[in-house]
Amino acid sequence: MYILTEGINSRYEYEKLARVFFPDQKMNEREADDPNALRIEVRWRGQQLSSKLNLGEREFFDETSVDESKSHDKNFCELTIAQMLCRQFTELTGFEPPWGLLTGIRPMKLLRMLTAEYGREEAEHRFTDDYLVSEKKLNLSRRTLGNEDKILALSRDNSFSLYISIPFCPSRCSYCSFVSQSVEHAAKLIPQYVELLVREIELTADIAKSLNLRLESVYMGGGTPTTLSAEQLERVLTAVTNHFDMSGVHEFTVEAGRPDTITPEKLAAIRHSGVGRVSINPQTLNDSILRSIGRRHTVEQVYRAMDWAKSAGFDNINMDLIAGLQGDTLESYRRTVDGVIAMEPQSITVHTLAMKRAAGLVTGHIAEYNAEGALASQMLDYGERRLTETGYEPYYLYRQSGMVGNLENVGWSKPGSEGVYNVFIMDETHTILAVGGGAVTKLKQPGVNNIERIFNYKYPYEYISRFDEMIERKKGITEFYDKFC
């Protein structure tokens, strides 16, 4: 893929738009004269805007003249060219992306900003007419936004949430690119990792207290937190409740994740430590697909884990599903949705398969999962209908690059059981103090969109060997608040 721009500096944005239609295309300057390469040319010359696509012998050209009053408006001209390009790509491929021009992960944040600036009616008009978002996705966004806003109202200027990273998994799923170590290779690191994680929790709590920050939610994720033993889980979680002020916390979640790592003892330890919400993630209720994606558990283990969680006293359980998995059919996916609903979790998060460069399924399969977008869309439509019928409401929504069909991930819940941390992190509402390997602290300046990041070392061996150096970085939290608050 080669992109030529003249008079405009939005090459990266147009590249992202091109990858909605051609996800396996890479930028290559040497392809400028290759007649078989995808070639994009965009020009801004005063009041004249134009876009041209070439792929093989196929060529598409469009141009428009804008009013003099708009000809110096950079945002307007860039958006107009993007609209022309999107329509040309659709004509070239026959694919009309449901989210139109939107390539970012936070469409709800955009709709909220537009609503604040223009009011609801005008914001929705711009969402569909300017950004080419489909009516179907506008309707979903409208429902989600209303539920998100109720959660965002809980946050204050001095609010923060805590994220705890456990970067270990029993095995790597074929679609996953999160930084994690399989327990088979990293088991010997876990005891020392837990020791240092508890120290980091204590140090972070001291910083939060010194700054008079208010804790709103706690989320332990990974990786798979339940790769830790019951004793290790209780030690880490108790460190949180012993050192942080939990009086204002709306949610304390542990992502139990893989059913093959869940035991009654671990669930009892989690519950005893004050955790009120757990997530059990089958992804599918199809044993053959579980095997094909590298999940070392069975559907039977999913049901057993749910029974154990309920017996341990959890009355706020989330389950995760993935639409668009290779080999899944619409009929099989419908059985999964109906089976999960029948287990009566309080919330269900429906993901669309998103392939990352580090994931094992990417090589040789990008074109295939792009072509399966229509099937994934049917899966999401069925899930939306059934979840709505059974009393679930969408409460947060986000997107990822490389998603099958250019679709979305949506969290659904029964009223009052929303995962508030999910909303806070996706909206970038307030500061996230993060601990553990691969964790990223995100410092939010109240009242503006300024965010500064402090990165922990990614891999457990780095986290352990360079712990003191990493902790030194945490001084940046106090420096940030001294500067901005």
> Mind telling me which CATH architecture of the largest domain this is?
Alpha-Beta Horseshoe
Beta content comes to: 15-25%
Give a count of the beta strands, DSSP E runs of length 2 or more.
17
Distance between the termini: 45 Å
- Put simply, the count of helices is 18
Q: State the helicity in percent bands.
A: 40-55%
Q: Which strand order does the major sheet show?
A: 13-14-12-11-10-9-8-5-15
Structural class: alpha/beta
CATH topology description of the largest domain? pyruvate-formate lyase- activating enzyme
Number of domains: 2
Main CATH class of the largest domain: Alpha Beta
- Outline: globular
Q: What's the CATH superfamily of the largest domain, by name?
A: tm_1862 like domain
Brief descriptors of the model:
single chain; 485 residues; alpha/beta; Double Stranded RNA Binding Domain; pyruvate-formate lyase- activating enzyme; 2 domains; nine-stranded mixed β-sheet; four-stranded mixed β-sheet; 18 helices; globular
